[in-house]
Amino acid sequence: SREGRDNSRRHQRQFHVQGSRSVAFPVTSPDIMASLVAAFSRVSLGSSVSARRGQALGVSTPSAAPSGRVSFIVDAKQNALKRQRTSETARLYNKDKKSAVATRIKKVLKSADELKKAEVAESDIMGLETLISEATKAIDKAVKRGIIKPNTGARRKSRMSMVKQRLMIEKGLYTPAN
C-alpha cells in the first residue's frame, strides 16, 4: 500500500494558487500541457483588471459573464506591499510635521492679534519674535525634508514677518523707510 501511495504521488503535479493553497492535477496522459492550456485559455484578464491604492490587484467578471469566465484575486507583489507600508508611514510623518508648522503659525497669528488689542511695548514684541523664530525653524525643517515646497515655506515666513511689521507700524514702534 505504501508503494501505491508513492506511485500515485509521483504521477501528480502541484500547482500553487494564491499563496499556501495548492491544487493537484493528476498526470494521466502526455498531453497534460495541452489540457492545462485549454482549461486556462478561457480565463480573461482583458479589461476587467482593476486596482486601487492600498489594495490587492483584483480581477472581476461582469454580472452577465459567459459561463467559461473565472473570477479570482491576484495578490500584489511583495515590493509593492512594502512600498505601500513605507508610503503610509511617510504620509503620517509628513502629516505630523505639516500640522506642527500650521500650529506654530497659528500661535504667531493669535499672539499678534492679542497684541493688537492691548498696549504694546518693545518687550512684548520679543515674545512674538520667539514664536516667529520657532515657526521659522519648523518651516525650514519641513522644506529641507521635502514636506512642503520652498516657495510655500517662503510665503509662510513672509506672512508672519508682515504680520509683525504691520503690528509694529500700527503701534508706532517702527516707521518704514519710505
UniProtKB/TrEMBL annotation:
The keyword Chaperone does not apply. GO terms for molecular function: small ribosomal subunit rRNA binding; structural constituent of ribosome. GO terms for biological process: translation. GO terms for cellular component: small ribosomal subunit. Keywords: Ribonucleoprotein, Ribosomal protein, RNA-binding, rRNA-binding. Gene3D superfamilies: Ribosomal protein S20. It holds the Pfam family Ribosomal_S20p. PANTHER family: 30S RIBOSOMAL PROTEIN S20 (PTHR33398), SMALL RIBOSOMAL SUBUNIT PROTEIN BS20C (PTHR33398:SF1). Belongs to the bacterial ribosomal protein bS20 family. This is 30S ribosomal protein S20.
